[in-house]
């Protein structure tokens, strides 16, 4: 958890409300801090990072977990690329638990998990494909993503479950860029599991030129 | 659907989720087949298509047609084998570790489980497995991980995958997270990764039956969490063979309603 004081919102260089179920992206310059605010609580935010200079270099969930030695994203987690480089750090976190092993929802996986009636529901993978297309990137560029505010405990038995989010309204997580990155978000539209409390809601993204404290 | 309030739909979805979870984590594991014995499941000589020994530190690329299988053998019980794979006709469809864990409600793999693609289809079925100690979470070694472990950059899985991908006209953008066989990684209660060395045995093998036409890359490098110094390991053996056709009561096809659907969607691709 972060004990750092909240920065002055008027110092922010950017602030935007991402509507429920929608994607968002922006170039985050090295040194800038992105805050994601879970406005109403229990809202999963799927995220991907690409090196702005060469997007073939991108966030790698497995390399991040290997370097960290543990399975969850939290305050202090260093986000590592597929070239072993530090892309960004988690510099504040009032939620305490984020996932990077459960991937993102898709029409295809929804149909498998919840039945064919869920195939024609909007999904994170659809958001990612459309948002990535703005940068010349495509489905092949979707890798295992971060899931901010999503609670996926992995038990010693291996049991792997998306459970009710522990994030309450107003929780935030700060990500400070260590290189210029394309930061891509899907504000998760999933209504078939508890990651969004079965009710997707908006989130706010705020960018400061300096870390929050 | 018509006439239901948002709250009623949410409640129905929550109930369905709880039912699926109970099935996935309570009934399914009990119904999975027993692990294969180390001296079990001989391959009929006439079924063998090819055989390859991959030296420590190296990789091989294997094309598997639907219905063929690949046996991966770790003769000395010291190796780990990291695997990525693509659908032969569309390399944007890959092995997806996250969906593999999520759909089966478990980050573990053993006999009776399957490996899924990002398109809701089954790529591989674990039709035989003596080990049940495999890793979906941490992935293979990289230049930096070998430097940190051994004081020098050694041959590693990341570069093996790049080399194999390049020979198919693919590149860094096409390399997904990997599954590592014979890598006994689990989590402690605090979420830290633990290496369970006692779960590796000489002669361990796993048989992967292809449910789609696939291109697989296998890298024989020590897993980054393997504490052996100097690096342990040895050659691994790959045996490509014609698998017995999957019966309708095939254990891999019938573990859960989710997996039955994933097989339906896969079969449609080839119908």
Explain what this protein looks like in three dimensions.
The complex is a heterodimer of chains A (213) and B (271). Chain A has 213 residues and is an alpha+beta fold. Chain A has one domain (21-208). Chain A is 12% helix and 27% strand. Chain A contains three helices and ten strands. In chain A, the strands form two sheets. In chain A, strands 1-10-3-8-6-5 form a six-stranded antiparallel sheet. Chain A is globular and about 45 Å long. The two termini of chain A are 14 Å apart. Chain B has 271 residues and is an alpha+beta fold. Chain B has one domain (10-270). Chain B has five helices and 13 strands. In chain B, the strands form three sheets. Chain B has a six-stranded antiparallel sheet. In chain B, strands 2, 4, 5, 8 and 12 form a five-stranded antiparallel sheet that branches. The mean pLDDT of chain B is 96. Chains A and B meet through α1 and α2 of A and α1, α2, α3 and α5 of B.
Average of the residue pLDDT scores of chain B: 96
User: What is the count of DSSP helices of chain B, taking H or I runs of 4+ residues?
Assistant: 5
* Overall strand count of chain A: 10
* Low-confidence regions of chain B: none
Strand content of chain B: 25-35%
> What's the overall average pLDDT of chain A, rounded?
94
Strand content of chain A: 25-35%
Across the major sheet of chain B, the strand order is 1-13-3-11-7-6
